[in-house]
Amino acid sequence: MKTTVRLILTLPILLLVFTDPGYGSNGTVRQLTIASSINPVTAAFITQQIDSANSSGDAAILIRLDTPGGLDTAMRSIIQGQLNSRIPVIVYVAPQGARAASAGALITLAADFAAMAPGTNIGAAHPVAIGPGNQPDNTMMEKVENDAAAYARSLAQKRGRNADWAEKTVRESVSISAEEALDLSVVDLIADNEQSLLAQLNGFKYLRDGKALTFASGGLSLKTVDMHWRQKILNALSNPNIAYLLMMLGIIGIFFEISQPGVVLPGAIGAIAILLALFAFSSLPVNYVGILLILLSFVLFILEVKVVSYGMLSIGGVVAMAFGSLMLIDSSEPYLQISRAVIAATVAVSTGFILLATGMVVRTQSRPVTSGQEGLVGEIGEALAPIHEQGKVFVHGEYWQACSDHLIEAGSRIKVVELMDGLKLKVAAADSTQDRHPETAEEA
């Protein structure tokens, strides 16, 4: 009886052990490649894959990292996924020439196993202000720095790495090479490639729930997982250059729709581009003054169509667009800035296109009316009967009632002077040496 009770009590524990994916490895290591800034899209991709790897029973998850840094919120989301993973998380700074800067340095520190390829570097994790509007004051920045330094130190202590260096990379923005990182116990090893990395990790210890576990890499195979197309598109939008180009495309599309109503397609494309740009700007340090200057340039270009300024409004629009583009991104970090070459080319092309469209609108508005009833003014026709206070003429393929200040004989050539009320034309005798040949009733 006692034996039966013991079996019943231990059965749930046995089921939990054998069904927990952390214990039942499927012999694969899931590999992710991150070669961009750390943003909400990359954070969602990494955390989703960590959860999926745990659910699938993968032996480990390998993050191949090359990043200049990114958002603090996105970084902390990734680190939380690393710290709560049942399977070991490996961060490998690669390929040669890659870096784990800023947020990437802390993600590397939080890994169970941290490795670097030769010729790579890690560090420079000092926090910078990311967000629109004015920069925070010194007191606020000191609080942010202290918080980041304490966070980096706690991660290093948890993983048994150099806590003093972790704090130093936040406070002093120090950056070190792969060899220095290995000497200072910032990373665990240096490997030329993923196969060499797994071979060297065989037998390494890692902690789970206070217990030391051994990582056995023998016989494991790599399974590469990439972002799907939607994630790739959203990740690309987080590039400052692409976000800027989308915003300018949106402005041009909407301007074209306003200047040429009814075309529809440019306006639809412009609206979509503006919305995508707003999504991208949500993860970038946007300066409101830069946005307002660009919008001001847009308004000035539209006013050029309505107001005779002899080009002064257009010049003001070009100047506002150029300064707004330069001020749009407010950050000292190179990877967050818009390329000056992109700004110059975009401002030149956008200005040329807008001025061309403006010129077309102005020329169209200055042309005489050639259609509708207003288009009859100036047309040449024929008097079908004597015309004075009453008469009848044939103009533009149609018969009209007409009147004239002076008597016009039947069969004479006439010229339309004015369209009067009641669909009646006021005409005058045409100058045969200057006006066009009349259309005759017989030709109609």
Can you give a write-up of this model?
There is one protein chain. The protein has 444 residues and is of the alpha/beta class. The chain has 3 domains: 2-231, 2-enoyl-CoA Hydratase, Chain A, domain 1 (Alpha-Beta Complex), CATH 3.90.226.10; 239-366, no CATH class; 373-429, Nucleic acid-binding proteins (OB fold (Dihydrolipoamide Acetyltransferase, E2P)). Helices cover 46% and strands 16% of the residues. The strands form 4 sheets. Strands 8-5-3-2-1-11 form a 6-stranded parallel sheet, sandwiched between helices. The longest helix is centred in the C-terminal third of the chain and has 27 residues, at 340-366. It is elongated. 37% of the residues are buried. Mean pLDDT is 83; it is low at 13-24 and 432-444.
